[in-house]
Write a structure and sequence with these properties.
Distance between the termini: 169 Å
Number of helices: 4
Strand order of the largest sheet: 1-2-3-5-7-8-10-12-14-16-17-19
Number of strands: 20
Number of domains: 2
Largest sheet: 12 strands, mixed
CATH class of the largest domain: Alpha Beta
Strand content: 15-25%
Oligomer: single chain
């Protein structure tokens, strides 16, 4: 029994060593190729170009924290089995058309913390099965209808901390499966109707930390699955009831803290009606603070909301009473003048009669 067992152990050692040599022959110096896990870790290897030798069986390739600046066309031709590709914190400024075209099984692509300023039409070719795309902390300034046109299966898109100030209508029209869209900390100033068209599966829309001053009434209407809308830390001074009423979901949580609210009666009426809608939840209503008028600066809206319309009513009442008094005074003065004129005529007539009797 001992001899066969020894032979078996020897055979396992030989196979393991052969496999290790095979993997090491594919593994470029600076990388850690873990064939048993199908991981290839090349983080902090000071690469300026994509490595030419990566085991074909690799499913996770980590190239983070290097100095790679370009993703050439038809890269990764020998790594078609990749499922996760991590390229964050490099110096990538250009992804050539079709750079990822051979990665038909790729599910996660991390390009965050790079220098990408433009997404070309060919950027996403071949990535139909991609589920997550990380583009946070890049230099994107605008999005159009060609930016994500091949990403039919994308579920999570992170565009946090770019410099995006323009989103053209239908920029996300091909992302019908998208469930999370993170656009916080950009430079958006307005939300126009149509920019979120076709996003019927979207559940999370994060727009915090922009410069949004206005939202068109129908901008959120296509978002029939949205459960979280984050508009905190923008430049909203007022809110329009119909804008939020157009959110036709079973349950949506809305965040609005950190905006410079103009606390007047109109705002109080809007929030009162919004809070009465059972499917909408203003989670941070009790933290909303006033920016205007100056007398209410930094007051919490909840502390003054019952007085806003009261003050307006008192003002209207004072104006109304003043107008009524003015009108009555004018009528009284008019009546007095009329009577005075009438008495004047009477005395004139009496004088004429007296003169006639003298003759």
């Amino acid at each position: 029994m001992k001899a066969p067992l020894s032979l078996l152990l020897l055979l396992v050692l030989v196979v393991t060593e052969t496999s290790s040599r095979s993997n090491s022959s594919w593994c470029r110096p600076g990388c850690d190729c873990r064939g048993d896990l199908k991981f290839t870790i090349c983080s902090r290897a000071r690469f300026s170009l994509l490595p030419s030798r990566v085991p074909p069986s690799t499913e996770l390739l980590d190239l983070s924290d290097n100095n790679i600046s370009v993703i050439p066309q038809s890269s990764f031709t020998k790594n078609r089995k990749l499922r996760v590709l991590i390229l964050h914190n490099n110096n990538i400024s250009l992804v050539e058309d079709g750079g990822f075209s051979h990665l038909e099984f790729l599910q996660k692509l991390d390009l965050s913390w790079n220098r990408i300023s433009t997404l070309t039409k060919g950027f996403s070719i071949g990535l139909a099965f991609l589920r997550e795309l990380q583009l946070a902390h890049n230099r994107l300034t605008s999005l159009d209808s060609s930016s994500f046109m091949h990403l039919d299966g994308l579920q999570r898109l992170n565009l946090t901390s770019n410099s995006i100030h323009t989103i053209q209508v239908r920029s996300f029209s091909s992302l019908s499966s998208l469930r999370q869209l993170h656009l916080q900390d950009n430079q958006l100033t307005a939300l126009r109707s149509g920019i979120f068209s076709m996003l019927r599966s979207l559940e999370v829309l994060n727009l915090a930390g922009n410069r949004i001053r206005e939202t068109e009434v129908g901008v959120f209407k296509p978002l029939t699955s949205m459960t979280l809308l984050n508009l905190a830390d923008n430049q909203l001074s007022t809110a329009y009831f119909k804008t939020f009423l157009n959110i036709h979901t079973y349950s949506t949580h809305i965040l609005l803290e950190g905006n410079p609210w103009n606390c007047d009666c109109d705002l109080q009426r809007v929030f009162r009606k919004l809070r009465s809608i059972q499917r909408l939840f203003l989670d941070d209503y009790y933290n909303l603070t006033c920016k205007e008028p100056p007398v209410l600066l930094d007051y919490r809206l909840m502390d003054v909301d019952t007085e806003l319309c009261l003050a307006e009513t008192v003002t209207v009442l004072i104006i109304t009473v003043t107008v009524v008094i003015t009108v009555l005074a004018a009528m009284l003065m008019g009546e007095r003048k009329r009577k005075k004129r009438k008495r004047g005529k009477h005395w004139t007539q009496q004088g004429e009669l007296s003169d006639e009797s003298d003759y």
